[in-house]
Amino acid sequence: MKQTTLDGGQKKKGIEYKVYKAKRILNKYKHVDSWFWNKYSAHPYTGCEHACEYCYARADKYLHTDTPDDFSRIIKVKKNAAKLLRKELQKVKKNVIVTGNYQPAEKRFGLSRKMLEVVRDYTFPVHIIEKSDLVVKDLDIIKEIHEKAWACVSFSFSTVDEDVSQVFEPIAPSPQRRLKAMKEISNTGVITGANLMPVLPFITDGEEMMEEVVKEVKDHGGKFVLIGGLTLDDNVKERYFRLLRGKFPELIPQYEELYGSDPHEHYKRIAERGEQLCKKYGLLNRIPRYCLNFNQRVAEQLFDTTYRIELQNPKKAWVYRRAAWAIDELDKDIRDVTDLTSIPKVGRKMAVLTENIVNELRRR
Q1: Residues 215 and 307 in one domain
Q2: The pLDDT value given to residue 63
Q3: Which of 111, 88, 112, 118 lies closest to 100, judged by CA?
């Protein structure tokens, strides 16, 4: 099967590259992401050859193909990605951007590198979220970005157990290859760590398996481990349950019970377990934010508080989240605000908490 490529070459049978000219590349979010700290994202490829069985991007609302199975077979390649990014970054305020995509297509097209060159040229801070060790090929540019602004590379894992990884992410680079890449990145001074996402219920959520991940991250120079649960929407659930029936049929009743109701308590348990393990190994369970101004430093602490409260009471967390957004997006320095309750979404209790944070940061 001959495939269209930028260099006129061919790709192995089964994978189809659809090269096209995109109209836009930069995604701009209303609020900053309080886990990965990005306000923008831009990716050169749509679809993913890694074909992880649990991938949330197969859900209907994200799908770019007619069928979920084609998500990892048909890869759309935005040949003008770097040119678009150069044009669009000129029009937005500087903030963290998530970019880069080091699936096998990158070996042929090299678009992630070209986009990072643009990020470097405009001195934007960048967060690269990866499941491939291929990212180290561009470590020279990533290091330049970090020297001029800030760069973070976080590697995604569901486990570091090679046998389990082969079941759920058989085409992705092995956990050991990702860990080796983490070590290489850490040695340059660039911030790196792990996104333990998703933790698979009844498979990788035991303390021993989670501890193995945290220990390996520590041993390979990582600074943090973020913990996230498994979400199963529409066809993602159908695909995942099909795998369970073939490999772990005894777990079907437990999964049906867990995902037949609100799995929040499960998410809470694994997050608390992850936090304790991070403390044991001297790692963070949140990514330290790259702050461009004092307001972002205040908002960072409010977002961290929001995270902890959400584990206990998701509804209560909204009060903190809205206040954090308001302060993060405030158009004047919060130190110049005499009445904090004049800030939208900041009530009396939140004003007291915010004032304490401001005073503490002033003393540092």
Answers
A1: no
A2: 67
A3: 112
- Asked if residue 235 has pLDDT above 90, the reply is no
**What's the confidence (pLDDT) of residue 12?**
43
pLDDT score of 6: 37
Note whether residue 72 is domain-resident: yes
Reported as a single tens digit per residue, the pLDDT across 162-198 is 999 999 999 999 999 999 999 999 999 999 999 999 9
Domain boundary among 246, 281, 316: 281
- Indicate which CATH number applies to the domain containing 335: 1.10.150
| CATH assignment of the domain containing 275 | 3.20.20.70
Task: Evaluate whether residue 202 is within a structural domain.
Answer: yes
Total domains in the fold of the chain:
2
Same domain, residue pair 230 and 349: no
Structural domain contains residue 204: yes
Range of the domain at 210: 20-281
Final residue in a domain of this structure, among 227, 258, 281: 281
Share of the chain above pLDDT 90, in %: 88
Pairing of strands 151-157, 126-130: parallel
Question: What tens digit of pLDDT does each residue of 108-160 get?
Answer: 999 999 999 999 999 999 999 999 999 999 999 999 999 999 999 999 999 99
For 243-266, write each residue's pLDDT tens digit. 999 999 999 999 999 999 999 999
In a domain, 42, yes or no: yes
Does the pTM exceed 0.85? yes
